Amino acid sequence: MRVITVGAGLAGLTCAKMLAARGHETLVFEASDGVGGRVRTDRHGDGFLLDRGFQVFFTAYPAARRHLDYGKLDLRSFDPGAVIHDCGRREVLSDPLRDPASALPGLLARSASLTDKLNTVRLAVELGAKGARVGSVSEVEIEDTSTREYLYGAGFSRRIIGNFYSPFYGGIFLDRTLSTSARVFQFTFAMLATGKTTVPARGMGEIPAQLASHLREGSLHLNSPVEQLLRDGGRVVGVRAGGEEHEADAVVVATESPEAAKLTGERTPEGAVGEVCVYYELSGEADGRKVGLAPEGEPEPFFNNTAELSAVSDLYAPEGRGLLSAVHVGQLDLSDGEVYRRGVEQLSEWYPDADFRPLAVYRLPYCQFAQPPGVHRRTPANLTGTPGLFLAGEFTEDASINGAMLSGERAAQAVMETRWEAR
Ligand SMILES: Cc1cc2nc3c(=O)[nH]c(=O)nc-3n(C[C@H](O)[C@H](O)[C@H](O)COP(=O)(O)OP(=O)(O)OC[C@H]3O[C@@H](n4cnc5c(N)ncnc54)[C@H](O)[C@@H]3O)c2cc1C
């Protein structure tokens, strides 16, 4: 079969990799100048590696385990736990699972009561066991609610939710209000409890690069936005890209949700969450391999979280130099200069002995499709009602690296299974 994949993000690449491995002729059309979609790494003129937005890779992701060679990615781990920066005070909140002593009453932290810590351990045991059984967010079986309601229901105090859960999971969901589906929380918690939080030594872009290395030479077309799907009667029979028509037995649309809706006319999830990621050269020290977090407060903090990436992988910065990423959840209507200045104001309180030199600002309004409670029951199927047309992309699963790769895998399976019935 000849299969065209539209989009070379993790979903499209996983799909094309699987189809190529089964001997099908695969063509991938990508609008931009490189693979990876939302997971790309830029090389700054001074030699820093800048991911396009702060991202991490959970080694426990089930779909990623099936498709990636972790050894070749040379994964470098963050320390478990986090550092909470509250009004000039710094509190290390360790992970009670990996450091059981931190759950003892003698080490009671300000941010978490003993009940909170014991609840965390209970959740880690429960959800860790669940995590070993579920492959994705949609397989988490609970009456869906918001993460915040779920945490209250599980007995956590307002204090730990505001000081830890809101900035930590808010930084992952890009939603400090924690209105994101509790299914996403449960799945993410399970991934954290059963694996490591990492980045590839040479940046997140190594993940799509590894997937793309499985494609046959000449099958990937960069700078080739698909303008239109070709239809014959009720069937999709190819694409138009760069003014040229390309025919295929099947077309898999693996773009972001809004573009997929535009190209196919299918109903796809609406809404998005975003971030502004700011990079600074760091002279001095920040939080080492732990992430820094800003608790909920009035006024809300400028940055939600920071990471000293050069402490996690020294290859992110030229030798002897430091790289700090800082994330504002949401968008900002400020000039780059003002973003840097406001950022340094906060960072100087967090790290009074360090200096910061602005490197880059990434404004990313579409990081993940919005995931309110119940959304995962309404995500579109990979097999559409139109013969020859298939969907991949995080929006068919859940907004994560795992969701995107799983969607690509399922779309490839759907293509291979429907081939004989359709023709
Ligand atoms: C800043 C940020 C932080 C994140 N943090 C995490 C994290 O820590 N952990 C995690 O698991 N997930 C995280 N995510 C989410 C994760 O990166 C995404 O869910 C995933 O990468 C989506 O992959 P995708 O293939 O579905 O879509 P995309 O990566 O968006 O790929 C779609 C591709 O289609 C291309 N395209 C669009 N239109 C056309 C067209 N007409 N013709 C041809 N090509 C087209 C685009 O250029 C793009 O390359 C984060 C995302 C961002 C942006």
UniProtKB/TrEMBL annotation:
<dbReference type="InterPro" id="IPR036188">
    <property type="entry name" value="FAD/NAD-bd_sf"/>
</dbReference>
<keyword id="KW-0560">Oxidoreductase</keyword>
<dbReference type="InterPro" id="IPR002937">
    <property type="entry name" value="Amino_oxidase"/>
</dbReference>
<protein>
    <submittedName>
        <fullName>Flavin containing amine oxidoreductase</fullName>
        <ecNumber>1.-.-.-</ecNumber>
    </submittedName>
</protein>
<dbReference type="GO" id="GO:0016491">
    <property type="term" value="F:oxidoreductase activity"/>
</dbReference>
<feature type="domain" description="Amine oxidase">
    <location>
        <begin position="10"/>
        <end position="416"/>
    </location>
</feature>
<dbReference type="Pfam" id="PF01593">
    <property type="entry name" value="Amino_oxidase"/>
</dbReference>
